[in-house]
Amino acid sequence: MRKRVNICWFRRDLRLRDNAALYYALREGHPVVALFIFDRTILDKLRDKADRRVEFIFHAVMEMYDGLAAMGSPMEVLYGEPMEVFGRLMRKYEIMGIFANGDYEPDAIARDSAIEAIAKEAGVRFSLYKDQVMFEKTEIVKDDGHAYSVFTPYCKRWRSMLSDFYLKSYPTASYFSNFLQDELIAPPTLEELGFKKTNSEFPPINRSRDMFRQYGDKRDYPAVGGTSRLGVHLRFGTISIRELARYVMEISDKFLNELIWREFYQMILWNFPEVGQGRAFKKEYENIVWRNNEEEFDRWCKGQTGYPIVDAGMRELNETGYMHNRVRMITASFLTKHLLIDWRWGEAYFAGKLLDFDLASNNGGWQWAAGCGCDAAPYFRIFNPYLQTKKFDPQLDYVREWVPEWADLDYPAPMVDHEWARKRCLEAYSGALRVLRQNG
Length: 440
Fold this sequence. Notes:
Blueprint: E1 3-10, H1 20-27, E2 32-39, H2 40-43, H3 52-70, E3 75-80, H4 82-92, E4 93-101, H5 106-121, E5 125-129, H6 151-161, H7 164-167, H8 209-218, H9 231-236, H10 241-248, H11 253-271, H12 294-302, H13 308-320, H14 325-338, H15 343-353, H16 359-370, H17 385-392, H18 397-402, H19 418-438
Parallel strand pairs: 1-2, 1-4, 2-3, 4-5
């Protein structure tokens, strides 16, 4: 006889504590089965089988698996396409409800709609909850009901709406006894999923008060370790946004501001989904004629541009899956404005490399750098790599770490002169916008 259960489907919320969907699943009364799907529609597209993100997810899921096993509860850790996996689970269990936390990316929305449809056909309730952000979708809008497209007023409204209600954690631990008690189910190994160990050192969940206190002063200097490295934990939900916001509110207003930027881009993606499908937020920037020189793009990717700060950032990314945020802006500006290569090329490259890749933030950052996004830097703001180095890596500590040959004779000359590239960029951008205005 099939066991009557609720399913809690974990996606980008890989923790058992303070988890909205898990709280509601446990509280409803039916025994709860925890589920994680290694989605083959995503994994099969990954060319590099030593993918740091897959390994990070695997370790996080195994930590949950072990925690549940200690309670005598099995966790379903499955590999396959979600539609097929739920077909299997519906044959194995009498599922009363499927509980999950919302994901606002276009592909995720389509996936959830498909699962909701088969659940409805089977008489199973499918419920989504807010968990990865404090405010979602259209919770924060202008007085006229339209979405914000400029950060500052959005930030002001976000702060005015924040209250203890939104900061309060979900007491999931109080209901852990409602997990299904049954024999454990052996999970697949990383190798059985088709991936190799990378032996990467993943950043710990950093709750250092000193780091947060000094964040505003140190965050722009890539050599000093002044950032939290929490991006990957927020991306995959190994830390609660409520817990983190509550912790930093009285310590670092600047860090809280960065959390609001993250939610701003999530809001933009939901209300303007075309940005997640390769479209510029400011449609007039679709008229720019990009050079898209593949050889120059390859040199940028490999960190061989002849600009040490740019090369350092790209090499750090390629070797570790991480790049300091200030350097992300410098490298993105260089690609789009010095080389006049389409921001979508850079966005895709970062998407394939960043351990903390998040569609909303990555897209927002690249469109900001290219000048075509919401609340973007104006197109005529072009970072000077030399001045950025002088200001944020004055002792060249970061450059020396990643480009030790920067002063050697065999280090390549700059692939393009800064002032000449700046003028070329201004002509390309202003020309495209001028043509658009003339054509009405």
